[in-house]
Amino acid sequence: MAARRVLSFLTGQLGTSFRASLHMAGSFSANCPEKRGLPTIFSRIPPEAEWPRNPQRNLAMNSARFDLRALLAEARQARLWTLPSDGHNLRPNTHRRRTMPTGTNIKTYFDGSWHDGDIAVMKAADHGTWLGSNVFDGARFANGLTPDLDKHCARVNASAEALMVTPTVSTEEMVDIVREGLKMYAPDAAVYIRPMYWAIDGGMSAIVPKEGGETGFAICLEEIPMAAPGDAATLTRTRFRRPVMEDAVVNAKAACLYPNNARMLAEARTKGFTNALVADALGNVAEAATANVFAVRDGEVFTPVPNGTFLAGITRARHIANLRADGVTVHESVMSFQDFHDADEVFLSGNMMKVTPVTAFDDTHYQIGPVTRRVRDLYWDWAASTG
């Protein structure tokens, strides 16, 4: 992605000054994981220098002011572009696997061992690649703790079975593999833990995963910071809904469910919000686009009752147990959108950030209240007590 944008930028801005060009480059290079060579390369080009009118023919040109070939060779060393030895046909480095991962410092467990980096694990003909039999789960390493890691590992096995994919690693083995991988991180690192399965062999009509067929398995670890306590979400309604079991594999944490989440988030973004409050097939609130949801009113906590349209999360269950143990009344009930407008506090529950305060639902605004803060404290106190 970054390479294509750099190439388009350089070859598309014919006749413009590099001073203007540098401003454009800075607008995207800060977010490119392949940015390593850009600041050094661009800073060495004089501001008044002009890109050659025909870059395809003049890549070998040496200016009295700077050596363009040397600069592009440096870019090639940064693995942004490929510059053939003849100096022609500048092109993106398509031989390098370019990714835009969510986190950093990635480690991958695949084929029986840990590997440094975001390595390739799927093949073009794998059932999971072209027919979407991918499942995953997410756990966290934060504050030196791995809360409910065993439950997350068990759930990815259950998700695989829901998609007719044969799980191949026991919960206990998976936990041990994860703990081995986490030794590669600093004790104070915040790491997202993602075990994954996918079917390799196709069975009936190629659509059904082959019974007893080969299964792909990998674990990805990547550093993703925990949100700051004051970070909050804003919610709006979306026209997209949660499916029922007859429509989709809602009893699994399956990759094929996430394009629907993406539609919800994209719609929310166009309206100026960061997440969406989502209805089930009957029009009642199910959850948010990316997390389970809770409302607080008069000191009591309410959350939509699991009805087979959404995955009632492991972290959600932990919050309910912690709150009840702390003497707070928690209701799992059918909830309307009006219930959330009438709430004193609203917060989201998910593995990625554990507790996310909500400060707005459309035109209703909330403070980050005492119950929301208490839920977060209870969670980490519980996690610390379990080691």
Order of helices and strands: HHHHHEEEEHEEHHEEEHEEEEHEHEEEH
Mean pLDDT: 82
Number of helices: 12
CATH architecture of the largest domain: Alpha-Beta Barrel
The CATH H-level superfamily of the largest domain is D-amino Acid Aminotransferase, subunit A, domain 2
Backbone structural class: alpha+beta
CA-based gyration radius:
25 Å
Determine the N-to-C terminus distance.
42 Å
How would you describe this protein?
This protein is α+β, with helices and mostly antiparallel strands. It has three domains: 2-92, no CATH class; 104-223, Aminotransferase class 4, branched-chain amino acid transferase, N-terminal domain (D-amino Acid Aminotransferase, Chain A, domain 1, 2-Layer Sandwich); 233-386, D-amino Acid Aminotransferase, Chain A, domain 2 (Alpha-Beta Barrel). It contains twelve helices and 17 strands. β9, α9 (258-270) and β10 (275-279) form a beta-alpha-beta unit. The longest helix has 17 residues, at 370-386. It starts with a helix and ends with a helix.
